[in-house]
NADH:ubiquinone reductase (non-electrogenic)
Amino acid sequence: MNTQYSNHKFPRVVIIGGGFGGIEVAKALKNKEVEVMLLDRNNHHTFQPLLYQVATGTLDAPSIAFPLRKMFRKQENFTFRIADVLGIDATNKTLDTDIGSISYDYLIIATGATTNFFGNQDIAHNAMPMKNVKEAVSIRSFILQNIEDSLLKTDTEERSAYLNFVVVGGGPTGVELSGAIAEIRNHILTKDYPELKKEDMNVYLVEGLPKILANLSPQASEKAELYLKELGVKVLLNVQVTGYDGDIITFADGNRIKTKTVLWSAGVMGQFPSGINPDIVVRGNRIRTDEECRVIGMKDVFAIGDVAAMITDELPRGHPGVAPVAQQQGRFLAKNIIRMLSGQPTEKFNYFDKGSMATIGRNKAVVDIGKIRFQGFFAWWVWMFVHLMSLVGFRNRVVTFINWAINYLTFNAGIRLIIHKYRRPERVREPVNE
Amino acid sequence: MNTQYSNHKFPRVVIIGGGFGGIEVAKALKNKEVEVMLLDRNNHHTFQPLLYQVATGTLDAPSIAFPLRKMFRKQENFTFRIADVLGIDATNKTLDTDIGSISYDYLIIATGATTNFFGNQDIAHNAMPMKNVKEAVSIRSFILQNIEDSLLKTDTEERSAYLNFVVVGGGPTGVELSGAIAEIRNHILTKDYPELKKEDMNVYLVEGLPKILANLSPQASEKAELYLKELGVKVLLNVQVTGYDGDIITFADGNRIKTKTVLWSAGVMGQFPSGINPDIVVRGNRIRTDEECRVIGMKDVFAIGDVAAMITDELPRGHPGVAPVAQQQGRFLAKNIIRMLSGQPTEKFNYFDKGSMATIGRNKAVVDIGKIRFQGFFAWWVWMFVHLMSLVGFRNRVVTFINWAINYLTFNAGIRLIIHKYRRPERVREPVNE
């Protein structure tokens, strides 16, 4: 064991993952009699709900990524390390990581989810996921590269592959991403590329279910589909993707689209280190927990957020994979840990559903808050306000506001930069299971 | 020949490079009876004077990089292509590029300069250059990675290599870069990394000449050195670097410093496609031109900016490699081309020297404007104003202003992100010659 991490006077809470859940645990343990150690592969927290705006050039990456050290610089009981946690040894209460062994008293697995390609290696290799800043920046580069490349093709058929953009998955991410790409087509394409016509570019949104935004209200689904169609997005429902070789995407109904760009937002799956009993890993590669976020069968090990499945009679599939669940579980768990340390009885987690929303293009959104449902321009303002206020850091809120305001007034989001040219990986980028 | 680029009714001016010189030529030819084609490897113009602020996390990359298509979207006679120009065939007036053959009537080589490692392969491989946005972002990542890695080393000697930062080259770039790294040490290090002390980190500026800023006035050199020392930068003068293996930098006087990070701003050299007579390539790999920017011995081929050496009796070494030379030559050349087309006599280039400046840390700068020389706080305001106004794009000026203001008030520049983890290249990144 690495002695550097083992000489502590208070119990050590180790949190794996600086996402929405992990940072809430750490914050809620400020000034408590515990040592908090946060581990993440990256040095920043990512505001995932706005990744699609980085991918489509409205926002710069630093506006939605916040350095974790800066976030916690006033918290004395906090330590941060960039680390990849490889395994959990629950018997010895240690983690095996790429920076050595780390001991814990309480372990919180807040490792979130990664893209789920449902076992299709071709799709995993050729389609582009969007779960972190690097991937979003890659999408921005690749969209621009393909439009540039299209100008070099004189054959119309060949050219179309570069100008067909296919988004797979009709959840909020797919809806927002396809809407934003359609805005590029509608407002930017012919100005930046006078050689091209609007009609040369096509944006598709492909969904396997009979409707998009299936987790929102029927009104939200219907309106979102209408708004997308008004923007010119071709919405394909009840369509199953069977393959994508980098040039042609094929569907179960026999149809196919020539395209260089498939953006994959069709599913996620939990990701976590080894050492978890496979019997408690459920659908979506999530770790089953009890109602106190405790991993079933493990002592002092907890899981929260997208990686966790708190399955009860009322919730046979666990909570939805959204930020508020992770945040509420994080705050809840920190309180329970404090209760445990002071010998008080622990409590059960209770999720408060604040609602769901998605934005479509520059003036429209759909919002469900319990029974209250509204869509359109006012919903779009609500969406903007909620997201702006949720960003971490004063600078990020100001810069994002300016970018949005200039973009709204000029129809001309400015960050169409190719800094790191994107090339398809030579091998599959993430382990593919499920 | 690619027919796509050859069917034109007006003479075609092809510009290689969208730097300070290239964009001025293109702008000045707006609404003239020429076709303008701009070629660049990147899709954006880079404001190189502020690269060091991206490298040190004060500014985000999009603030100093501006998409070339957006810059020229209102110019009808303008075409842009991302292209790597491989060779010039002056006989047939065509360019060989990675996107096919391109014909020209007038060719402007505005390809700028790349880092000069003076033939030292080890340095070229292990030291980090800073001539484009990608390289600046790599430096930002690598500085942060090394500070993170230092926390994992218990051996003081071993740790010091991660916390010694060596900047080679005492020109404006080296001075500004070392000053900004010293500010990280002075104001950020112990807040973000409570495990570290200020004294653990060292910043060196190494210069082969007896003074820094050798091209500025003696007062500027002296004051800049004083300001750097006040910031805690160890300024090493009259020191020649002999090698760097990635762990230890060695000097001609036998001294050596253990360091993982050597930032190389010790020299530049022109870069240009093949097809230029080697007899007219002078010191610094620059192309010799006459006083009208015409490449010696070539017809209708011109060179401007850092890649050009307009050698005259008064200027035996040509103009300095600074943005105003490139900009003035660009505007001058566009006018001369218009004169040629209308049968008027051409003129000779005359450089108007607007002066030089460099900033050191958060409150100090040195400014030389002809005989007027001043240093200190007011100079720093002048420096800021000039650079802010020189940025392209309203958004970029606003965002940069906000970043500077927040940074100034909080001592806490925010963009300390590692998005693309930096790894040393496996081979030398640029051709190394002299």
